[in-house]
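Appendix B. Chain record.
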Amino acid sequence: MLYKQILQNKRKTILLILLFSVLVLAIGWAIGYLANNDFWSGLLIAAIILAFYVPITYMSATSQVLAMSGATEIKQEDNPQLFDVVEELSLAARIPMPKVYIVNDPAPNAFATGIKPEKGAVAFTTGLLDQLNREELSGVAAHEISHIRNYDIRLMTICIALVGVIALIANFGSRMMLFGGGRRNDNRKSNPILMIIALVFVILSPIAAQFVQLAVSRNREYLADASAVELTRNPTGLIHALQKISRDPRDVKNAKDATASMYIARPLGNKRKKRASLLATHPPMESRIERLQNM
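Structure tokens predicted for this chain:
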């Protein structure tokens, strides 16, 4: 089951890269056609951005996420209990011990990063460490370690990078069209049907890409919850932890929209947490707890 899930994640990562790459090139074509009545200029620009942006984001994702969240690496003597919990669960998951970080924030939350288990890191807010007992902390740590073990982080990092590329190109193209692009001096006749298709594509592509990312994110949370129970053999700790986290209305101050999907619970907009929607980065907390109670 475990190896099947990891293999599925690796396959999905490759499929997502191919799917989003085609989407990026298509939106490049659409913008090039709308702005310059040209099939190739937009494709070329999109390919260049894709070739540089995605590898750079992929290689620097871990350090970017940790820096943006204000996480600070700690040593074992700083929090022996937390280190013991993480080390114990890493052994159970058969992955190298990830680096441990603390985020100085009263809102209870946690996240994992690292594109592969050898470069994994787990971060916990001070609010989470203050509110949870050892059993609950084990549930949260197991959830985050499952994300690393299952290669969820790699999948989500690729998703975030490619959605960012699409948003970047769409924004660039919109500005080109707003200011006229090269069409003023172009005497070639454009096909009105292709113009409409290209315009719809430019408008809808960023939205469609965002939906795909959020759907992948929500599904990963359910799987990580199940994997956490597999590691701890005790759903109660994670259930109680999620209940405590869901009752706290505070947002994580340094959380960003781009990285919100990596946290164990929605770190932003917690006042609206009961409103499930397609735009949610996480499945409803009630649904997660119900699934854990039925395990």
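Further analysis of this model is presented in Appendix C.
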